[in-house]
């Protein structure tokens, strides 16, 4: 760095002699949740090549850098790990599907003979985003799952709907706050309690929900007991 002096001899700035410059090359694009903007934005995935500069003129290569993700709106650069966070639209769809799967699991465990349980489940699923969901649709889905023995809760340790629960909940759990994970479990608990106390199969299904949501077993028991206690 050399000082740049004005007419009075005082330093007024600095002239950069040596530096580095990065030339970025787009290698992909898409939509992501931008941490800087706080919303869904388009992005470009970039890789870069650094060069040593002399008086701003690029000279010697200094290796590669990146890849990085550049927001099309704010132009900030982020690590590629931000692409692991779902967009707002994707997160909403994941949550909606999770509520639907939890409702089916609880109904499959407790049966569909109770109209109250079906009504509670349908209302819960509609509130999550499936506006056209009906009690009849849920009952038909549970019957179809019951006919498919590879997907039904036949025993506490069976594969049953456990696979579906983990497929729906495992990707969602890391992006939910603890209160959100607990709220999802409690939605299932309210469906189970709509027609009376938990039966063992319902508790097993809800325990599977809690495990998939990474809620500790003692916390699952606490939440299920709290849901059973009238407020």
From TrEMBL:
Q: What is this protein called?
A: TerB family tellurite resistance protein
What are the coiled-coil residue ranges? none
Cite the Co-chaperone DjlA N-terminal domain residue spans from the record: 98-223
Q: Which InterPro entries match?
A: DjlA_N, TerB-like
């Amino acid at each position: 760095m050399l000082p740049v002096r004005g007419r009075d001899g005082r330093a007024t700035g600095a002239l950069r002699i040596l530096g580095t410059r990065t030339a970025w090359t787009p290698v992909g694009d898409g939509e992501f949740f931008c941490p800087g903007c706080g919303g869904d934005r388009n992005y470009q995935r970039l890789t870069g090549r650094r060069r040593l500069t002399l008086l701003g003129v690029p000279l010697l290569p200094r290796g590669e850098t990146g890849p990085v993700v550049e927001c099309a709106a704010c132009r900030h650069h982020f690590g590629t790990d931000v692409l692991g966070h779902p967009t707002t639209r994707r997160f909403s769809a994941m949550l909606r599907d999770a509520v639907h799967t939890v409702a089916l699991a609880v109904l499959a465990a407790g049966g569909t003979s109770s109209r109250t349980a079906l009504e509670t489940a349908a209302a819960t699923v509609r509130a999550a985003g499936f506006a056209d969901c009906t009690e009849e649709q849920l009952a038909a889905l549970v019957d179809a799952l019951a006919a498919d023995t590879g997907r039904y809760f036949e025993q506490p340790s069976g594969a049953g709907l456990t696979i579906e629960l983990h497929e729906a909940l495992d990707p969602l759990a890391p992006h939910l706050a603890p209160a959100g994970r607990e709220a999802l479990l409690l939605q299932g608990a309210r469906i189970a309690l709509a027609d009376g106390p938990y039966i063992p199969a319902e508790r097993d299904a809800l325990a599977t929900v809690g495990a998939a949501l990474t809620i500790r077993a003692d916390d699952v028991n606490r939440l299920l007991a709290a849901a059973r206690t009238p407020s």
